[in-house]
Specification:
The chain is mostly beta strands. It is built from no helices and six strands. It has a four-stranded antiparallel sheet with strand order 3-2-5-6, with no helix packed on it. A two-stranded antiparallel sheet has the order 1-4. A hairpin with a 5-residue loop joins strand 5 and strand 6.
Length: about 80
């Protein structure tokens, strides 16, 4: 990415899902709705619900489908 353009890409997503993002301490950060039958990727500008860039650190995300299937994983933000 170009300088100042902070983006994180979630890949291999199901056609329809919700991505919930939390800090490592469990504080809610953001929810992203993904609906795309053709592209299993979703870009996120690493901003919270108030439009502020999130702090560097470790984050947990949960991908949940409408049928209730869940995938939990983590990512790190380094600046």
């Amino acid at each position: 990415e170009s300088p100042g353009n902070n983006l994180l890409r979630f890949t291999h997503l199901p056609a329809q899902c919700i991505i919930s993002i939390y800090t490592i301490s469990g504080e809610f950060v953001m929810t992203i709705d993904h609906v795309d039958d053709f592209d299993g990727s979703e870009w996120w500008d690493v901003r919270n619900g108030q439009g502020e860039l999130i702090a560097p650190g470790l984050y947990i995300y949960v991908v949940e489908t409408p049928s209730g299937e869940k995938k939990i994983d983590k990512f790190a933000v380094v600046r």
